[in-house]
Amino acid sequence: xxxxxxxxxxxxxxxxxxxVDIELPPADVIRxxxxxxxxxxxxxxRCPTKLMMELPDAxxxxxxxxxxxxxxxxxxxxxxxxxRQGTDSAEKYYTTISLYDDTTGLPFVFMDCHRVGGSRxxxxxxxxxxxxxxxNVQSALMIGTGAQGINTLPYLLTALPSLKTxxxxxxxxxxxxxxxxxxxxxFPDREIELVKDVPAAVAQSDIVVVASGRAAHPKIQTKxxxxxxxxxxxxxKGVEAGALLDADYAIATNEGQMGVTGKxxxxxxxxxxxxxxxxxxxxxxxxGRRSQEDRVFAFSSGMIITDIPVAHALATRxxxxxxxxxxxxWN
Length: 331
Hints:
The structure is a single chain. 30% of the residues lie in helices and 23% in strands. The longest helix is centred in the middle third of the chain and has 19 residues, at 114-132. Mean pLDDT is 91; it is low at 1-6. The chain is of the alpha/beta class. Strands 9-8-7-10-11-14-12-13 form an 8-stranded parallel sheet. It has helices at 3-6, 16-19, 26-41, 114-132, 152-159, 173-186, 198-203, 255-261, 278-282, 304-320; strands at 11-14, 51-54, 62-71, 76-85, 93-101, 106-112, 139-143, 165-169, 193-194, 207-210, 230-233, 249-252, 276-277, 296-299, 325-327.
């Protein structure tokens, strides 16, 4: 019997506080996530459609989902779970990810996934913008200041350094402050314009990212975009139902997942149909848009193939820094 089989299987557990100050620059996350889409497009990774379940007491506004996937680059298997009750705050949102090493057949880590989601989501937004925005893009508007939005503007500017005007709309003071301080950390010489008139700001922005929960703004319509505009919905309730109908070109990170979480975007009684999936666009098999005048709608839904490499990078850095605990769960 070899040494690896004689070892007692154990898992390293990392909490949210263990990971909060682990440095992972936007450029590194964007590279990891873009590579994950390429491996998936080339058939080397696996990502079944997420399983989502609404819970029976509607007044609790609770939802749960799970994802299973395999990252062919790292040869790591991942399980992700999420439970959220209510959308007015992040207090009752709990998400975890566990990774297993398919080269050794051993568990690697079980960890809080909040930091992972807050990194891979803006990276996906930046990758969509990089491949689907019109040429010489000048301006971007971020709507929402929750966990999915705080990192978005620095990630966008990392991917598209040509951006000259960066706008932000939010209603929560703490979220606005966190968004501004996070941006200043990476781009201390740049400024963000805070906006109040959302429809007017949409009409003036080449890229519009909507990551608001229960929107405290008029729901965004694709037809508000200027010609050549790009609207990215981060699974947002802040986008008007039927937004796909007004798009000249529509994409999604994954069409199957859009059918689970984004049906309303097609309008009443219609199926959500798209022109291309993001992995095929990244791989060069599909265009990000047909023309420079297209109004493009993009639906961004999380795929665990992008969680796995970001979680792995945070975990390896955290473990190297002496964070967390190793537990012999199967002893």
